[in-house]
Amino acid sequence: MEAILALEDGKVYRGKGFGAEGTVFGEVVFNTGMTGYQEVLTDPSYTGQIVTMTYPLIGNYGVNRKDEESTGPKVQGFVAREICSKPSNWRSKQTVDDYLKSYNVVGISGIDTRALTRRIRAKGTLRGAITTNNEFVAQPEKLISEIEQFSTNSPELVRSVTTSQVYHLKGTGPKVVVLDFGIKQNILRMLQAKGWDISVVPSNTKKEAILKLKPQGLFLSNGPGDPKDVPEAVETVKALMEKIPMTGICLGHQILGLALGCETYKLKFGHRGSNHPVKDILRDRTFITSQNHGYAISAKKLPAEVEVTHKNLNDNTVEGLRVKNKPIFSVQYHPEAAPGPEDSRYLFDEFTEVIRNII
User: Which of 128, 147, 166 is the last residue of a domain?
Assistant: First the structure.
């Protein structure tokens, strides 16, 4: 099945379709992880994006339900150099091709993913589309004109992946409310392993509803898109700052930053992969981290009470912050590491200690 990937700048890549047939539009990004493609596919933070894997062979250990980070794939489309049709692993239940077919996700393989990645790094993140439609394949200029009408930012991104209702995960430890912007299942598994008594609430939950749950801590989750697209969450976090300890990761970190008066901006091509070096300034140690974000907090205009605690050693961007003399801190990366290294799991222990020292 012939397919093309077209970019807003007019570049067209021809390859073979896999997964579902059809046409999808999204923000074209790349992930540098060598493993963990199923976690990438099902990470809600990729909602609205066409994800390119830079590692050339994808699917060699197949797909299984236990590695899902949400209920099925959340990517808009999937790009690979080569897709393995005969996976070899005792846990494998399905090929990537069949898995994407079952969820109606369009993919393309057989293209030069190295060239595509270099193009994104040079020009910045680009809007694009994957199609198996014969008309578009024959006349890609028609598809490119439609890409130009496509917008990548929307408050609907978070709304499409947040929980629709409050649910509870029992534990014997601190009572923590999780504000769900598109949380990964491994984060919840890790929080449960720490003993937290967890209430997961929708992203638009107001201050009063959160306080009714009598939390001892607030956790702001990862999620897709621009933090400025969810101003209601920023206002809720701002209103709770004097009430309870809080921490956040990824989008939650950015939302916390906006609530504190920081500024955010869009990165040229984002940080996505499981091999990003981050320095913990307070501990004077460097950790390898798992990341997935296209926005960052600006280090140029930080409020006086906000301190940078972590920085990215590739580009010196802000990777963590804390509020002086308050039980509030956050990090830009994914300390639960799904996929990726487990170096930074200590941050969950740190928040547990913060809560216990207060109660």
Answer: 147
Q: Are residues 163 and 132 in the same domain?
A: no
The pLDDT value given to residue 359: 65
| Shared-domain flag, residues 188 and 65 | no
Residues 10 and 138 occupy one common structural domain: yes
State the catalytic residues. Answer: 250, 334, 336
Instruction: Give the pLDDT confidence of 25-67 residue by residue, as tens digits.
Output: 999 999 999 999 999 999 999 999 999 999 999 999 999 999 9
| Residue 321 phi, psi dihedral angles, 5° rounding | -150, 165
> Do 215 and 336 belong to one domain?
yes
Reported as a single tens digit per residue, the pLDDT across 331-352 is 999 988 778 777 778 888 889 8
Residues 112 and 161 in one domain: no
pTM (2 d.p.): 0.95
Question: What are the phi and psi torsion angles at 31 (to 5°)?
Answer: -120, 130
Burial of 1 (0-12, 13-18, 19+ CB in 10 A): exposed
Residue range 201-245, pLDDT digits in tens: 999 999 999 999 999 999 999 999 999 999 999 999 999 999 999
Q: Are residues 95 and 204 in the same domain?
A: no
Domains: count for the chain:
2
Regarding whether 88 and 216 lie in a shared domain, the answer is no
What is the rounded radius of gyration, in angstroms, for the C-alpha atoms of the chain?
20
CA distance 193 to 118: 40
Q: How many whole angstroms separate alpha carbon 329 and alpha carbon 340? A: 22
Do 250 and 318 form a contact (C-beta atoms < 8 A)? Answer: no
CA–CA separation, 349 vs 322, rounded Å?
16
How many other CB atoms are found less than 10 A from the CB of residue 43?
Answer: 34
pLDDT tens string 91-128: 999 999 999 999 999 999 999 999 999 999 999 999 99
Show which of 89, 116, 147 is a domain's final residue: 147
Which CATH number does the domain housing residue 58 bear? 3.50.30.20
CB 42, CB 16: distance < 8 Å: no
64: domain range?
2-147
pLDDT, mean over the chain:
95
Task: Measure the CA–CA gap between 117 and 125, rounded to whole angstroms.
Answer: 10
Cis peptide bond prior to 339, omega within 30° of 0: yes
